[in-house]
Amino acid sequence: MGSNVAARGRSLSGTLAAALESLDCESLRVTRISRFFRTPCWPPGAGPDFVNAAAEIETALPPEAVLERLHAVEAAFGRERGARWAARTLDLDLVAMGNLVLPDAATQTRWRDLPPEAQARDAPGELILPHPRLQDRAFVLVPLAEIAPDWRHPILWQSVAEMLAALPEAEKAAISPVSGPWSGLSALVKAFETQ
């Protein structure tokens, strides 16, 4: 999850915390949350820095219904889908669901191996799991490593920790925890722990 445009008068961290509260419902339970991290915008120079985090959820919903819920929460926070990789109030990505591969291994591999120029131009018209750029992005792997370092990519068969270790040090060094204690996050984590 990420944000690089303030929404409803909230800070970027406040937007993520409010989005987590909005996501947590009877059919979708937030069970773990990483720290919030300040990360450079992707692609470089495309806008202001992001605040990113990772959350683990428990659900019996099928992947398409989870994605629909994520998109509904994004819309409630003013997300507008315009230009690819544009600045946004809220970005909620479904990165993986257990060991599920969608729609199939060949399609996931084709999107994962897409050349950079095609990545900037083309977007899949269907849900691809795991997310095809997961292994390439420190802003995903750094927070994900806090809550699921041992999860293994079902095709690459590398753990989150291994994928993160393979990234260039400069990309990892550009990511830092949001400075200072943010009481909203600690209260949110405590609320989820008592449920």
Detailed description of the structure:
It is a single chain. This protein is α+β, with helices and mostly antiparallel strands. It has helices at 12-23, 63-76, 105-112, 116-121, 138-147, 160-165, 169-173, 183-193; strands spanning 2-3, 28-33, 37-39, 50-52, 55-59, 176-177. The protein is globular and about 45 Å long. The two termini are 22 Å apart. Residues 180-184 have low confidence and may be disordered.
The neighbouring-strand order within the major sheet is: 1-4-3-6
Ranges where pLDDT stays below 50 over 5 or more residues in a row are 180-184
Structural class: alpha+beta
The secondary-structure element order is EHEEEEHHHHHHEH
Task: Characterize the overall form.
Answer: globular
- Rounded radius of gyration (Å): 16 Å
* Helical amount: 25-40%
Mean pLDDT figure: 86
Alpha carbon gap, first and last residue: 22 Å
The number of strands is 6
Strand content: 5-15%
Main sheet?
4 strands, antiparallel
- Contiguous helical run count: 8
